[in-house]
Amino acid sequence: MVCALGAAVCFGTASVLQAMAARAAEPGTGSGVDPALLLRAARQWRYVAGLGLDAAGFVLQIVALLHVPIYTVSAALAASLAVTAVVSARLLHVRLSRAEWGAVGVVCAGLAMLGLASGEEGSGTGSFALELGLLVVAGLVLLVGMVAGGLPDRSRALVLGLASGTGFGVVEVAVRLIGDVSLAAFANPALYALLLGGGAAFLLLTSALQRGSVTAATAGMVIGETIGPAVVGVVWLGDRTREGLTWLAVLGFAVAVAGALALARFGEPPRTAPAGAPGPTGA
């Protein structure tokens, strides 16, 4: 659980830095998938720093996924938006209102409930059909990103965010399906689903942060990376709660995700104010 929360801190801070860098990058082709955008954004130190935090967060995420149920890790990663809110208040000089601080508290309360109710990770290893299905989903994530370029700005950001969240969800499930790293892992479709899903998700999220509402993109991402993986963990991989505390786990999951969605706007870089105008002060 400590590793899951550490990953949330890394990802939440990285999202602010990457949103600022992506918005400052030169516009691309307008397509949902723009690989050159990563190269343009990577010229800025904020994006590079964000990549470093993402790498650290990914390591912590893997450790967490190997020890606690997927639904716990998913909720913790969604709660990274609470970290984004706090970091945005610091770096973007956005003043959080009482309601917004309340939403941060709601996220923390949801995670506390999950921590109390979570049992050990399930012992299920998944079938070959599940591994192959995961690879198909990863391919669909990339396909959705390719066709999203023709959508209106807000719809495009939401679709790209949802697709990227699904890709990150593929990574969460794939880590569990791969298990121990060995030569046998190279014959496991889940390994290639992890690489394809993770790469596509990162690219689509970067595109969403540049071309549309970060609020819509991050909200879509939260939905995509939490619900699906949690269901797979419970139904196919045997994730369970502590005896008699299923209701608390469900409540905690719902509360944490709801609080994260309420804070989705804090990946949004501030608009440039006219000369002499005061900076942003909150909602």
UniProtKB/TrEMBL annotation:
Q: Does the keyword Transmembrane apply?
A: yes
Keywords of this entry: Membrane, Signal, Transmembrane, Transmembrane helix
Where in the sequence is the signal peptide annotated?
1-21
Q: Which domain of life is it from?
A: Bacteria
Sequence intervals crossing the membrane: 45-66, 73-93, 99-117, 129-151, 157-178, 190-209, 215-238, 245-264
**Which PANTHER family is this protein grouped with?**
CONSERVED INTEGRAL MEMBRANE ALANINE VALINE AND LEUCINE RICH PROTEIN-RELATED
What name is this protein filed under? Integral membrane protein
- Which organism is this entry from? Streptomyces vinaceus
